[in-house]
C-alpha cells in the first residue's frame, strides 16, 4: 500500500476518474464492469470490518491528512492502490455533498444461487433504491442473511442503495437478476406475502420456523405468480389506510418474526 503517493491527479481524462464517474451515474456501466463505488468513511469502514476487498481507494488532496482517512489508510491491505485527486476534481465527480472526501471502487459480488432452507427476504421488483436499502438494513439487523432480488429490483449495490443500506450489503448474501422461477425452484421454506385480501393477521400466524418474506413492487405489489405460491398475511391498519410503504411493511414483518422467536 502506498500511503504517500507523489502523483496528484488533476485531469478528468484520467482513466480511473472516468470510470468512477460512469460507475456513480450509470446502472448499465456498473452491470457491465461488475463494479460499483462506495463513498464516505462509514461505508468504507463497513467494508473493512467485513474484510471486503477494494479495487482502488480515491481521495481528495485535502482529505489525505484527515484523521479518519489516516485511520482508514492504516487498516487497508498492503496491496490496495490509492489515487489522490485535486480537491476540485474530486468535487466534480462525487455524488455526496460536503464531507470527508474518500471513496472506493469495489467489485460487486455475484454468488451462485443454491437451495435456500433458512430465513430469507425476497425483493420482487422493488424499484426504489431507498426502499431496497432500508429493507437490506433491516434484514441484516434481525439476522436474515439471504436476499433474493428479481430482475426489475433496484440494484442492491448501486451507490444510492448502498447509502440507504448503510453498508448492510457487506453482511448479506445478495442474489440479483433472478426470475420468479429461480425463486420457486430454490427457496425451500414457506413463502409469505403481505396482502390486504386476507383475514390472517401477522400476529396470529406462527413464524417460529424459517420463512421467506416476499416484498413486492411499490405500486403493483407481489407478482401473481409468486402470490399464488405464498401464504397471504395481513398487517392490521385500523385507520383504513390503503397500504403501507414497502420498506415499512417489510420491516414490520421481519421484526414480528424476530419477536415471536426471541421475545415472546
From TrEMBL:
Q: Which InterPro entries match?
A: Alpha/beta_knot_MTases, MRM3-like_sub_bind, Ribosomal_eL30-like_sf, rRNA_Methyltransferase, SpoU_MeTrfase, tRNA_m1G_MTases_N
Q: Name one GO molecular function term.
A: RNA binding
User: What keywords would UniProt list here?
Assistant: Methyltransferase, Transferase
Mention one GO biological process in which this protein takes part, according to its record.
Answer: methylation
Domain tRNA/rRNA methyltransferase SpoU type, first and last residues per copy: 121-255
What Pfam families would the database entry show?
MRM3-like_sub_bind, SpoU_methylase
Annotated MRM3-like substrate binding domain ranges read: 14-93
What's the family? Answer: Belongs to the class IV-like SAM-binding methyltransferase superfamily. RNA methyltransferase TrmH family.
- Its recorded name reads RNA methyltransferase
Q: Show the taxonomic lineage.
A: Bacteria, Pseudomonadati, Pseudomonadota, Gammaproteobacteria, Moraxellales
Amino acid at each position: 500500500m502506498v500511503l504517500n503517493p507523489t502523483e496528484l491527479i488533476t485531469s478528468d481524462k484520467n482513466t480511473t476518474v472516468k470510470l468512477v464517474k460512469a460507475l456513480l451515474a450509470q446502472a448499465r456501466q456498473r452491470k457491465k464492469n461488475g463494479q460499483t463505488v462506495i463513498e464516505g468513511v462509514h461505508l468504507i469502514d463497513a467494508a473493512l470490518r467485513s474484510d471486503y476487498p477494494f479495487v482502488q481507494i480515491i481521495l481528495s488532496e485535502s482529505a489525505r491528512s484527515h484523521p479518519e482517512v489516516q485511520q482508514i489508510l492504516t487498516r487497508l491491505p498492503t496491496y490496495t492502490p490509492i489515487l489522490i485527486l485535486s480537491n476540485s476534481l474530486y468535487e466534480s465527480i462525487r455524488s455526496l455533498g460536503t464531507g470527508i472526501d474518500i471513496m472506493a471502487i469495489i467489485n460487486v459480488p455475484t454468488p451462485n444461487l443454491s437451495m435456500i432452507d433458512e430465513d430469507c427476504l425476497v425483493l420482487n421488483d422493488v424499484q426504489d433504491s431507498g426502499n431496497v436499502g432500508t429493507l437490506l438494513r433491516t434484514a441484516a439487523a434481525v439476522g436474515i442473511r439471504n436476499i433474493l432480488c428479481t430482475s426489475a429490483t433496484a440494484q442492491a449495490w448501486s451507490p444510492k442503495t448502498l447509502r440507504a443500506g448503510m453498508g448492510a450489503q457487506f453482511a448479506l448474501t445478495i442474489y440479483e437478476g433472478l426470475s420468479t422461477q429461480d425463486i420457486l425452484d430454490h427457496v425451500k421454506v414457506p413463502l409469505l406475502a403481505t396482502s390486504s385480501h386476507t383475514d390472517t393477521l401477522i400476529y396470529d400466524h406462527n413464524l417460529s420456523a424459517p420463512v421467506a418474506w416476499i416484498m413486492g413492487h411499490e405500486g403493483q405489489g407481489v407478482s401473481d405468480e409468486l402470490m399464488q405460491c405464498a401464504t397471504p398475511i395481513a398487517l392490521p391498519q385500523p385507520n383504513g389506510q390503503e397500504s403501507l410503504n414497502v420498506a415499512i411493511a417489510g420491516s414490520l414483518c421481519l421484526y414480528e418474526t424476530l419477536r415471536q422467536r426471541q421475545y415472546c
